[in-house]
Design a protein that fits this description.
55% of the residues lie in helices and 0% in strands. The protein is an all-alpha fold. The longest helix has 17 residues.
């Protein structure tokens, strides 16, 4: 449960940081890079992100 609370906190910080800067709708996904790498090979949101998304940092 601690990881979920941590991710929610991270999402809140990110949304606060970009809310006044964005001109288009934005989806923010927080997760671990290893899990993302595994899931991007299957038909998941991670695959769509890897093909069409924009990396903000990483």
């Amino acid at each position: 449960m601690g990881q979920v609370v941590e991710r929610i906190g991270q999402l809140r910080l990110i949304h606060r940081a970009i809310r006044d800067q964005k001109s288009l709708p934005v989806d923010v996904v927080v997760g671990k890079s290893g899990k993302f790498a595994k899931r991007k090979a299957t038909p998941t949101i991670e695959r769509t992100i890897s093909q069409e998304g924009i990396v903000l940092y990483g």
